[in-house]
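Internal tracking record. Fields below are filled automatically when a chain is submitted to the structure queue. Please do not edit lines marked as system-generated. If the sequence contains nonstandard residues, flag them in the REMARKS field before resubmitting.
Queue: standard
Priority: normal
Entity type: single polypeptide chain
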Amino acid sequence: MRAFAIGLCVALSAAPISTMAKAPASRAGMTEKSAEADKATTDTISATPAMWVVHGPKGTAYLLGSIHYLPKNVHWQTPEITAAMKAADTFVFEVPMDDDSWSDARAEYPKDVLLPSDISLPSLFDQEMRTDYRDVMFRIHGNPEGLVYMRPWFAAQQIQAQAYGVENVKGLSLDEGVDHKVYEMAKARGAKFRAFETVALHVHLLTDNGNMDEGMTELRRTLKVLLAETSDQTAQQRLFDAWYRGDTKAFAVASDDTLKHMSRAGRKALLEDRNRAWIPQIAAMLNEKHTYFITVGAAHLVGKIGVPTLLRERGFRVDGPDMIVSANASGLRATF
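SYSTEM-GENERATED OUTPUT FOLLOWS
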């Protein structure tokens, strides 16, 4: 029941857990980003991400789908988004965004992501998985040394990150992510904050909770999906491009593709179950006289189980793009 922290979660849902990576984990062989990955691309991308407006009995809520990591050359703050942020008095995220709320989770970080000292990741492989692992590392030019002591679920995340993340999107940065930018701007204004989930619940959703077998299943599935990838443009690239254009239909398709490594139950827990848990919270907010700016992973807002659709089913008026494609950013994309 996990999202991958840098690969899919670049766009979907689990950005806050990536802040845990600030904790030291030298035994995992993690390295600093290369200077090349930190450089912004030269051409500015004028993105027009989709935004919805929800009208309640007393309150109003703007819904913006976040890409949690972005290249530095993406300008997504359209006049409409800027005006919505100025109108809002309360900003809502998936989980608390402040560092203090994450202090306990960071303390548990090594235990959650690293294997016991007497176990290495390759020692858990059978022959088929060993072959798949070797072939994937060769295909994505991966760093197997950095994965030796990682728990399987986290190794799966990091492999996806290497396949879809900083190696393919130059200048990819958490600091440039939409939710981070929104939070920093709102904090500078002295705005109020709310969150849908506690840090403890969020971490529970994103880690294997000690279940090694489940982690191995996810890692095995991840390797198979990457080996089956035949498109010149990865699902991750298609996902970025769709978000830039505000094309919610294409984004829904690309996000489904990036979730292929997960079981059906895992996908349901990651998206649908959480979306449905947020609906009564949003409904309660709309009974208060406030204007909310809600920023969550973009995949939570599209498709039949997206938050806008579920709110409409509850009888709320939701204005938004849905299947309308914006042409303002057509032809523009990051350098992959």
